[in-house]
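Onboarding guide, step 5: your first structure request.
Type a short instruction followed by the sequence, for example:

Predict the 3D structure of this protein.
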Amino acid sequence: MINQIPSRRRPLGNTGETISAISLGTWGIRNANNAFKALVRGVELGLDTIDTAEMYDSGKAEELVGKVIKQVGRDSVFVITKMLPDRLRSKYEVLKYGRAALRRLDISEVDLYLIHWPNPTLSIQEQIKNFESLIDEGLARYIGVSNFNETELIEAINSTKKSDIVLNQVHYSVLRKDIEESLLPVAFKYQVTIQAYTPLERGKVLKHPKLTEISSRINKPVVQVALNYVIREPYLAAVVKTENIEHVEEIAQTLEWSLTPELIEILKEL
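The system replies with structure tokens like these:
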């Protein structure tokens, strides 16, 4: 009932680069010391993509990621951060807030910078044009988006001049599948990686009867079943936040096996 040869990494758009199939998140950190240890352990285990944002704990999450980078080495971490949409009104503001984030992270360049969600007061074209200045000025290697629906994603893809939209980070889980109908096919068509946030639904997956039944049947933790569903395709990845080293180790073990097509079909019906 288990496929044993999964890939631990996912393509980043069509850049030729990869990110870890499961990234570690930094939203809602309660204990910075525990989170630091968990993030360092995650990098050691191959979960070497860390996701943060300027709005997480008012910039303190970015500072924490900076400390992790210092501990493990810059080349050991693929850094994703996100910019608030009201910063996108001009190139000047984009660069101003981008540089502030880099100071907090204590690095010279972010690997991937995302628009945290669309700014409803600006056209997507204007937002992308201003956001691309991060690439022009060498503050980011790649750009992407977050919380963009299929229409907004297509518009963003068509608005770039020099760089591709390589990733869209959205809410997605085995219990929340609304993106499967329209957004996923669009992302796959354009080779945009979808990175799922809240893939464990803040623990709700642990109590779902069908998930617990499958977990018992194949002798794998529910967390790993739920995550493996979300990362079942090449252009699907996930981001998980934890401050617990044991949880990090359980999450990392998700990448040592994958669901069979039969189990995927059962989970699609949930």
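Each response can be followed by summary notes, for example: The longest helix spans residues 91-105.
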